[in-house]
Specification:
Number of domains of chain A: 3
Order of helices and strands of chain A: HHHHHEEEEEEEEHHEEHHHHH
CATH architecture of the largest domain in chain B: Up-down Bundle
Radius of gyration of chain B: 20 Å
Radius of gyration of chain A: 23 Å
Oligomer: heterodimer
Number of strands of chain B: 10
CATH superfamily of the largest domain in chain B: Butyryl-CoA Dehydrogenase, subunit A, domain 3
CATH superfamily of the largest domain in chain A: Butyryl-CoA Dehydrogenase, subunit A, domain 3
Number of domains of chain B: 3
Largest sheet of chain B: 4 strands, mixed
Number of strands of chain A: 10
Strand order of the largest sheet of chain B: 1-4-5-8
Largest sheet of chain A: 4 strands, mixed
Distance between the termini of chain B: 37 Å
Structural class of chain A: alpha+beta
Helix content of chain B: 40-55%
CATH architecture of the largest domain in chain A: Up-down Bundle
Strand content of chain A: 5-15%
Structural class of chain B: alpha+beta
Strand order of the largest sheet of chain A: 1-4-5-8
Order of helices and strands of chain B: HHHHHHEHEEEEEEEHEEHHHHH
Chain lengths: 396, 359
């Protein structure tokens, strides 16, 4: 047990802090500011795309998990944008690095890293949610082009995206997991229609995307025909872990404490209500448990040879536990405010721009998205505990 | 950076687990409720493995290890529901003597504790939350009053915390001392009441509120470790049962209703392991967060453990409720740990005070 950092990593932390002190003011805030310029500055100094090879537009440092953690911690502490975190950077780039052709890597990775090429993910369909492998959007080869027909849903950033990485059915006769291919689709191609999908937050955080005879050049397939399911699973695991970072949750908890100190009911601060305080402390204990769990997962990556037989289970539970807890945390803020908690939109008396109640609803979306809590429980039980799979019933 | 157990710590847990599988199988756990059962029967075997001397400094014949190692031992004891003293006898007592004892007291008492020849109970409950009229006063160097829920009660001597924050060594045979054993749902560990009437006692000169705090915090971490182990046993028993028990022509673990109960148990329990490591390590190396971590850990693990104990019993169906299976011993172990040295509500109130959020 040794929680200290090596002198090299301590020096690296100082270096990140110096960078933030010097350049932090240039960072974009929210939608304002020049995201591409900021991203380029981060790559130049090695705080974004740090471990991506130089020939593909990255910084080219050897992979170091603690360096990545230090960057995330310091940017979080300084409340400075850590650069692009979207699905292009987090999902497509690792996929292309692993299975893309040399030409695909050179063409797509550099502009994705700088934010000049924005991506959306085309996986889910109206009939293919938890059972994603039953997806039906088809791609039929016609000369030098795939002709795509069908519909995708839950596509965030589809309106801003230049490109989509999509799972499509290319082998209709094959078993369902073996008939899928991974395709890169230019969103400006004729035949694509994007419709915003308004969710319970009354914002369109997602979209529906319709394909009618969309022609995609043959070479835009990643990997071989029928390999799409395997390729998608290479990076799906990253998404499950990234939906709710326990360290971000700690920051949110501190904001909740500030809120409960400021909010008064019957002349008493919310934090002085023993029932609300007990709920707060209960959540803080759970956040502490998940932070320790996160530290264990980090340590297992840094020291893969140290042998921690149950660490796999510790990873499988993260999506389930963090999204459920975050939803509860945001919900406590709503309760602490009482009637003020449900004010929304541009109401008079709105607290913090309505972010607490909005986030409470949004996290219900994250409990469902990226593999519902029930799917997570199946995964934990079957892969983590070795319980028998659900007996298969008749399948189309 | 290495947040995990050392190879030595893992080996220690494994060898203790093997020892307890032999020394404390279910038959022995069952026997613990008989009046004829010697509550210190397992002590020589534990002492031989070093469990009694974990926290005794090497200069006094112990291993000189930390609260983390004690928590790991507690995990194995809880896993076996071992009917043996530990939290008071081999954690709180040696820690109290090492922190607050005089050199003479340390030299005279610590080696005997490490050898398992001196069993010490701990009377600290009133420092956490005094029930009824309980509490111990000091009058002219003698102790009077009642101390409830004295841990590891079948002891040769007791460490008694007085209302003024003092710590006292009281021999089991001291004059004016009446010992009243309690029966709890958990028959694997002994608690009781000490009634003191001008009882002679020897002070530990280094006692202070800060020292009492550290002893209680270590006790809390160790009880959380015990719950983690007991809950792990119940989870594994439930998963095994769900894989083998068939109804409607299928293993019940293939039904999502049962499968999801198992997943919820595992998902809530596994983070407790890392939390235990962190909070225990904080006792040894991070003094500024030690008390807060101990309070949060005790509360959180108690909540997870209690829910898990209920769920694991339900997975076993009617059998879980019977004495035939004996699963209830672990349920009761977890329920006992929950109330001792601070209930979840008390621990959370303390956490809030430590965070500066409550008076």
């Amino acid at each position: 047990m040794d929680l200290s950092l090596s002198p090299r990593h301590q020096a690296f932390r100082e270096e990140v802090r110096r960078f933030l002190a010097e350049h932090g003011h240039k960072a974009p805030r929210g939608h304002r500011g020049d995201h591409v310029a900021w991203q380029k500055l981060l790559i130049e100094h090695g705080y974004a795309a740090r471990f991506i090879p130089r020939e593909y537009g990255g910084y080219g440092a050897p992979p170091d998990i603690l360096e990545a953690r230090i960057i995330a911690e310091e940017f979080g502490r300084a409340q400075v944008s850590p650069g692009l975190q979207g699905q292009g950077v987090s999902m497509l780039v690792p996929t292309l690095l692993e299975v893309g052709t040399e030409e695909q890597k050179r063409r797509f990775i550099p502009p994705t890293l700088t934010g000049e090429m924005i991506w959306c993910q085309g996986y889910s369909e109206p009939q293919a949610g938890s059972d994603l492998a039953s997806l039906r959007t088809s791609a039929v080869l016609d000369g030098d082009h795939w002709v795509v027909n069908g519909q995708k849903i839950w596509t965030s950033t589809a309106r801003e995206a230049d490109w989509m990485f999509a799972l499509v059915r290319t082998e209709p006769e094959a078993p369902k997991h073996e008939g899928i291919s991974f395709l890169l689709i230019d969103m400006r191609t004729p035949g694509i229609e994007v419709r915003p999908l308004v969710d319970m937050t009354m914002e369109a955080n997602f979209n529906e995307v319709f394909f009618t005879d969309v022609r995609v050049p043959k070479e835009n397939i990643v990997g071989r025909r029928g390999e799409g399911w395997r390729i998608a699973n290479l990076v799906l695991r990253h998404e499950r872990g990234s939906l709710a970072d326990p360290n971000a949750m700690m920051a949110r908890l501190l904001a909740l404490i500030d809120l409960m100190k400021a909010e008064r009911v019957d002349g008493r601060r919310a934090i002085d209500d023993p029932v609300l305080l007990d709920r707060l402390m209960r959540i803080e204990g759970r956040v502490q448990a998940l932070r320790a769990n996160d530290l264990r997962l980090l340590s297992a990556k840094v020291n893969p040879d140290h042998g921690d037989p149950r660490v796999g289970l510790a990873g499988l539970l993260v999506k389930l536990e963090t999204t459920e807890l975050r939803h509860e945390l945001e919900g406590l803020a709503v309760d602490a405010m009482g009637e003020f908690g449900i004010l929304y939109d541009r109401s008079p008396e709105l607290r913090a721009g309505g972010t607490w109640v909005r986030s409470w609803m949004y996290y219900l979306g994250l409990i469902i998205g990226g593999g519902t809590s029930q799917i997570q429980k199946n995964i934990i039980a079957e892969r983590g505990l070795g319980l028998p799979r659900e007996p298969r019933t008749a399948r189309p | 950076m290495d947040f995990g157990l050392s190879p030595e710590q893992r080996m220690f847990q494994e060898s203790l687990g093997r020892h307890l599988a032999e020394a404390s199988p279910l038959e022995v756990v069952r026997q613990a409720r008989q009046p004829s059962f010697d509550p210190n029967r397992l002590v020589p075997g534990l002492a031989a493995l070093g469990v009694a001397g974990l926290l005794v400094p090497e200069a006094h014949g112990g291993l000189g290890l930390g609260v983390l190692d004690a928590a790991l031992a507690a995990e194995m004891l809880g896993r076996a529901a071992a009917p043996a003293p530990f939290v008071a006898a081999f954690v709180m007592a040696p820690l109290a003597l090492a922190l607050a004892g005089s050199p003479e007291q340390q030299a005279a008492l610590l080696p005997k504790i490490a050898e398992g020849r001196l069993r010490v109970g701990a009377a600290f409950a009133e420092q956490v939350a005094a029930r009824a009229d309980a509490g111990v006063e000091v009058v002219q160097g003698r102790l009077s009053g009642r101390a409830l829920f004295v841990l590891d009660f079948a002891a040769d001597a007791y460490l008694v915390a007085s209302r003024d924050g003092g710590l006292w060594w009281v021999e089991a045979g001291a004059s004016g001392l009446e010992r009243i054993p309690f029966s709890t749902i958990d028959t694997t560990r002994r608690v009781g009441e000490l009634r003191l009437a001008a009882t002679p006692a020897e002070p530990l000169p280094g006692a202070s509120p800060a020292v009492l705090r550290r002893i209680i915090d270590a006790g809390r971490v160790v009880l959380a470790g015990d719950t983690l182990g007991a809950a792990q046993h119940m989870l594994e028993a439930a998963v095994d049962y769900a894989k083998t028990r068939e109804q409607f022509g299928r293993p019940i673990g293939s039904f999502q209703a049962v499968k999801h109960m198992c997943a919820e148990m595992a998902a809530s329990l596994e983070p407790c392991r890392a939390f235990l490591w962190y909070a225990a390590h904080a006792q040894d190396a991070l003094p500024e967060e030690a008390a807060l971590q101990a309070a949060h850990l005790k509360a959180h693990v108690a909540e997870v453990g209690t829910r898990l104990a209920k769920t694991a019993t339900e997975v076993h169906g009617g059998m879980g409720f019977t004495d035939l299976l004996g699963l209830h011993h672990w349920f009761k172990r977890i329920a006992w740990n929950r109330q001792m040295l601070g209930s979840p509500e008390q621990c959370r109130r303390e956490a809030a005070r430590l965070r500066g959020l409550a008076a």
